[in-house]
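Quick one - first record:
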Amino acid sequence: MNPTKRILVIDDESQRNLLGKIRDEVKNQMQVEWSQVEVLDAAYTDDKARLVPDKVYVAIGKALSEHQYNLIMVDYNYGQPNIDGLDVIKFVREKRQKVDIYLYSAVQKDVIKKVVGDNIQDASTEEIVSGINDLMNYRIGKMVSRPSAEAEVIKFLRSELSFSPTAFISDMLREHSTQVFSSCCPKLAGKTYGEIANLIDEDNNGVANEWLTAILEQLVVYLSMVNE
């Protein structure tokens, strides 16, 4: 059975056609599933039809809690003064430190202007270096142009064909996210499976690693018992 790869798209326009093309291109190697948060959806506006970024962030947080994603694709420009792709990535990084993120834009210079300033030609070396450092802090896996997004995502997915036991366990936990854990690792007793999945997704979380070790030890014991 081919592995399943999940993509979360954050854009102001539906990317169903793009994702359908990506799915069809790699269908002999993997299954591709996706979710999208459409930033300009009416559900994220106030009673005067103005976009409310916090409502967008709530929707993104909900999507992140439902699955572990192999890749998050973030459009940069939503045509709104109070939210853009870098704002979205900053929010995602607060929730998921390790997930791969691709930022795409029809006009990549807009991203550079955001971090360096409008007068790029007149910017000092110090301003440019500061802007580059700011951009690096977002830990963007790749910044691509919109026309090349399809090819870049396919290339990424094909490089991710190896099976990850940790990702598999995290995803299984999310499918039973409300169930409460009570054994094997006292430090996590009382946490829901969803909360444990969040811990697993963090970088170098000692408690989560301890839990994973205990789970795998129990698996070996179980296999030994059933094969006696």
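second record:
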Amino acid sequence: LEGPLTDESSGAQSKKFAFRGPTAYSAIMTGSSVEAVTLANNHAEDYGKAGYDSTKKVLKDAGITYVEKDKTAMHTTESGLKIGLYASSFANITAKGIQNGIAQLKKDGAEIIICAFHWGEEGVYYADGTQQKMAKTAIDAGADVVYGHHPHVLQKIEQYGSGYIFYSLGNFSFGGAALPQDYDTALLQLDVIRDENGKVRLGELNV
């Protein structure tokens, strides 16, 4: 969720682009099956602490799970699947942070672990060395999925070890930009299978 949800138009940070959406926009997410978001990005605090706190309250009131920068969160689906989330961005993405976050999620009982990273360069179609290194560090530490964002364009999808890496999927919904440089994007459906013994594993990926 790259931008705060607040009804206060004052308090914008002094930067070229300061994003904001009204609090009513939470209904766009709840009406579209969005159950969890990450707040680890370079626009979440565009309207300062007040805007950020408003966003968290709006999401909580709407029943949408959120994960903050360098923190973890747990989301339980209707079927009882426990999904662990860890998020970070740019220079904050470190091997130690990733490993500690994943270890905490395992301790919390996560059955599937997703790492969400805000990284790379805008408009660049290739994952750089840091993205690839940190993504594989996450899978090696026990993540099932690494999901990247910030480039706003598609980057490669990679199966690594027992997990998947989505370096960048472009934009899902990007308001305010009448002429984005690239309209291409993707939606993913990844099956999660629980066997008769209760063990969880990843199944088929559809793009």
